[in-house]
Amino acid sequence: MDKLFVIAIGGTGMRCLESFTHLCSIGMFDSEEIEVLTLDTDQNNGNKARVEELDRYILGAIDDPDGTRSDGEDDEDMFIDLSKVNAGIEQIIICCTICKYPHDNKKDRRTLDLNFGQVDYCYIRIVNELNGEEIIRYDLKDQYTNEDAVEFGRLFRVGDSWEFEAMGRAHTGSLQTLVDMYT
């Protein structure tokens, strides 16, 4: 396991750390151990407090960092215990992106031409883990020919419960587009 040391200094450092935290929440650094050091002498600007609050919101709700809980049928599984999601979180957007050069692990320039129009059987489903019952399934039927990032759907709070809305919004610009939209 690799170990990353992240040092965030000042307001700009805290804003960078906030973006880094969002990337961690979607699994971008799952195989690394991360140590964080923060230094912000201006306690009035709130950047450090916002990052600490974000960490409390995200951590603890998503489980399956190494994919070992997958049932073998789906390529990617995410287990979200909605009872552990901080009360301040109003929605969880489920996204998928195609990792492209230079960010792909193999640094393969051929990834530049990949898009969701080339992906067969692309779907999201919600399953009751207790009994294995499929509660809802949303198949991405649109054929996207240029897009490499998709917002599949969102879980959102309604009172004390959660509901799901299928979205199917496609974008170009891969992960960075989604990070820019939501940070």
From TrEMBL:
What CDD domains does the entry give? TerD_like
Q: Which InterPro entries match?
A: Stress/Tellurium_Resist, TerD
Q: Does the keyword Repressor apply?
A: no
- What is one process in the GO biological process aspect for this record? response to tellurium ion
Keyword field contains Cell cycle: no
Keyword vocabulary terms for this entry: Tellurium resistance
Q: Which domain of life is it from?
A: Bacteria
Q: Which residues form the TerD domain?
A: 69-182
PANTHER family, per this entry?
CAMP-BINDING PROTEIN 1-RELATED
Q: What is this protein called?
A: TerD domain-containing protein
